[in-house]
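User: Need the bound-state model for zinc ion:
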Amino acid sequence: MKYYEKIKQLNIKENPIILGIESSCDETCASVICGREIISNEIMSSASEHVKFGGVVPEIASRAHTEAISKVCELALQKAEKKLSEIDAIAVTYGAGLLGALLVGVSYAKALAFSLNIPIIPVNHIRGHIAAAYLQDKELQPPYICLLASGGHTAVLNVKDYYNYDVLGQTVDDAAGEAFDKVARILKLEYPGGPNIEKLAKNGANNIVLPKMFSNDKKTYNFSYSGLKTAVINYCHNMDEKGQEYNKADVAYSFQKSATDVLIERTMRAVKECSVKTVAVCGGVAANGFLRDGILKECIKNNIKLILPERKFCTDNASMIAMEGLLQYKIKNFADISLNAKASITL
Ligand code: KG4
Ligand code: ZN
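Assistant: Bound-state model below.
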């Protein structure tokens, strides 16, 4: 019997052992989960190789993935004390991301799954970020509101069940993480920008006036980070033109406050309007301490349960990919060996 026909006839296990593989950007990640339990979570990053270029260089990232992929998978299996023969399925990010980088993970996962005669589960990276919440709280079930804020996406979602979301609002231009990275560049901070803005902001204050997003539309759930970024550029440029010094820490703090206040406002409004009692915050920007503290305060005030994955599960990791893989495994959403990487896919 052919590989795919055989895979489709598999009996579905309640708590399968899944190997997750993620290689969409500059981190090569592998993880083993059993049901919703993380048994290992390994990351090898090429971030330091990109610093001097001020952002991820696709070719450098692809080469680094090629060197790291088998090591990181072996390490994840070793730490989980699992043999390859014990793995029930392989979940791999097939998009969105850098094509050459994705291809390394997809090709490796396909070869491994085919040789082991086990299913390969194609995972949408963004859905993986959302699934991180299910690892943080093993009891979490939809419905809930999810704030997703990463380098490529910013959205408020009404999660109706494990497979369907209503997008209540999203960014109309730059994503929140993208804005953090661009403002970091203006302030001459190293890549990746988000964590460096957060660090610098610790010594700053909110004393620079920045524009409010869609201030005339109190009902929108959308975001627009491009204007906020431009306002920061203009402020710094004007001060430079006048030959005046400005406090970079204040710029970082004021930007961080504007960027995160709006995320919290939209999320809490969605909670009220959709009458749900639970909020999850996911994606790289959810690692930001200022956002974490702010949303926690609001949730306590409004008696809302908050699911906030540990920082290392907000930024790219393979456990979230394995978790989304588990959801797809349950409905036998398996790929054939013709699975390909895709640079852009929607939610
Ligand atoms: O989710 P992620 O790891 O990758 C994707 O885009 O899918 O998100 C990366 C983004 C980057 O823009 C990075 O600057 C931002 O998340 N980020 C942060 C922090 N840590 C990562 N932004 C603000 N504060 C942080 N501590
Ligand atoms: Zn990501």
